[in-house]
Amino acid sequence: MYISISKASNILKSGGIVAIPTETVYGLAGNALDEIVIAKIFAAKERPFFDPLIVHIAEFEELENLVAEIPKNAKLLAEKFWPGPLTLVLPKKKIVPDLTTGGLQTVAVRMPKKQIAKDIIKQAGFPLAAPSANMFQHLSPTTAEHVMEQLGGKIDGIVDGGTCEVGIESTVIGFENEIPVIYRPGAITGEMIEDIGYKVRSIEAGHPSPGLLDKHYSPSTLLCLGLPDEVPHNSGLLAFGKLPANSERFAKILNLSESGDSTEAAANLYAALHKLDSFRLGRIFAMRLPETGLGNAINDRLSRAGK
Hints:
The protein has helices at about 5-15, 35-45, 70-80, 115-125, 145-150, 190-195, 260-280, 295-305, and strands at about 20, 25-30, 55, 85-90, 105-110, 130, 170-175, 180-185, 220-225, 235-240, 250-255, 285. By secondary structure, the protein is of the alpha/beta class. A hairpin with a 2-residue loop joins strand 7 and strand 8. Helix 1 runs parallel beside helix 4. The chain is globular and about 55 Å long. The protein starts with a helix and ends with a helix. The mean pLDDT is about 90.
């Protein structure tokens, strides 16, 4: 089931689907321009067809093959943050199937930073649609083992690239009159974009974008964002920084970052949720992070993981 980069590329060329590592999470990759392959991805994940996929490229020049136009600000953001965890939503060319874009006339594209992912794209010879390699609405995978647990036997192979360095999905940005609009918060924060001279508009609630359904990234165990007044029996705590005064009442505690570092917390988020989920707790409570930088993106994922 675990395969090499060259084997993965050959499978992709033959119309198969494989899990590959990126710096954010593991993606379930297939030819973004082949509707049959895209249908395989949706089927393996049991993901609804209206939920658009992110297309991954290895070089900036490949973007021109996929989009009808590249706004000036989109090019400047790509020059600053690519390769990396930034996804740009731009008007698509007809070569991109509607199935890939969920029927939208825009396509979400990013250039991953992880070399393994770039090598696979280059050897395959075409852009890859690569949503997170998990079952729909379940926890995103940050290790090959996470992928095996959810999709083993349903896909054609897994490339083991170790633990994902960033550990949280990419920031998704669209453009309205050249102004960047964050549709999904992620590893590239609004503050980082404003630091290079851009004004960023607030998140567009309900905008069609990958990963924006109300329920997403969920563990099997009931998850609640925030701390309870009374801790129920057999509850777990996903902590951040200093533990609360009643922490001894929790059956299990995992701390995303004891030092209160949001970058460390993002890298640990999904692995910690996978581990807490394995303890068969009654429920999991997650401490809310400060709404700055990556804290905003992590709180977004935790709120979507709740039931």
